[in-house]
Amino acid sequence: MVLYKGKARLGFTEMKAIAEQVKVPLVLHGGTGIADEDMRRAIACGTAKINVNTENMYAWCQQVKAIFAADTGHDVNDPRKVIAQGLQPVREMIARRMALFGSEQRY
Q1: CA–CA dist 40, 17 (Å, integer)
Q2: Contacts of 5 (CB under 8 A, 6+ apart)
Q3: Are residues 9 and 33 in contact, defined by beta-carbon separation less than 8 angstroms?
Q4: Rounded to a whole number, what is the largest CA-CA distance in the chain?
Q5: Rounded to 5 degrees, what are φ and ψ at 26?
Q6: Which residue from 41, 37, 52 is spatially nearest to 19, judged by alpha carbons?
Q7: 85, exposed or middle or buried, with CB in 10 Å at 0-12, 13-18, 19+?
C-alpha cells in the first residue's frame, strides 16, 4: 500500500536527544507509510505511541469499495452491514501493527 510519494525520513538522532532530555515517552504522529524497520528504530529511540490511522481508514474504504463492486454489493441497503464488513481488514492491519510495535497482549 503506497499512500505517499517518496520515503519518509525520520530524525533518529533528534529522537534520541529529545528522549534523553525529557522523561516522557515520545509520540510519532503520522506513522502511515513509514517502513517497518524505521518504526522499530523509532521505538528503540524512545517512541511509545505511533499514530497510523490513515492506513486503517484506507483498508476500510478499499473493503467497502470491493463490497459495492461485487455483484452482491448492490443489495446492501443497511449501512451497518457495510460498516461491519469493512472492519475485518482494519482488524488485520491493527494486529500486524501491534506485532510490529511489540504491543501484543499489552492492552
Answers
A1: 17
A2: none
A3: no
A4: 58
A5: -85, 155
A6: 41
A7: middle
What are the structural domain ranges in the chain? Answer: 1-51, 52-107
Strands (E), 1-107: 26-28, 47-50
Write down the residue that cell numbers 506513522 correspond to: 31
Per-residue pLDDT of the chain (107 residues; tens, 9 = 90+): 666 677 888 999 999 999 999 989 999 998 888 999 999 999 999 999 999 999 999 999 999 998 888 866 566 677 887 888 889 999 999 999 999 999 887 76
Spatial neighbors of 53 by CB under 8 A, at least 6 apart, are 32
- All residues at 6 or more sequence positions from 62 whose CB lies less than 8 Å from its CB, including other chains: 89
- Pull the grid cell for residue 83: 460498516
Pull the grid cell for residue 40: 522499530
Enumerate the β-bridge partners of residue 50: 28
